[in-house]
Amino acid sequence: MLMFEYKDISWWYWLVTAILLTGGVLGNGGGFMLAIGLTSFQLVHYIFRAGNLKDFPVQVRFWYLMLLLVSLPESMQWLYWVPYIGTWAQIIFGYCAMARMVSLWPWNREEAFSFSLLNKTFLSRPVRGSVQQGFSGYKED
Q1: What is the domain count for the chain?
Q2: Other C-beta atoms within 10 Å of 124: how many?
């Protein structure tokens, strides 16, 4: 199922980020730096938009930025393949692995951590909006 949400500003942020990461993995290292810069801008935008650092979209962008920064040293740049593939999956199919991982943090869930929760979190179909809205048992922020 394709899920192009071109009317949503976050979709455009992710699209440009994916294009920049594509440049990076194809050999233009500047693409990684530009992706980090855009993600930093996006994070600040969402902090001001939400007015709350605990807002779920802010958390997702923060941890995504951390992944990009951990991948920055030359010896770690192979790791950029993870956000590269994941960001394209988000843009095309609406499947955001980072949001699903962030939803598992203790402050983002009410359900006990279990294999069933992991299964439901990572193997369920993509949903429009926040991944938290698609799973029962998650608290809404």
Answers
A1: 1
A2: 13
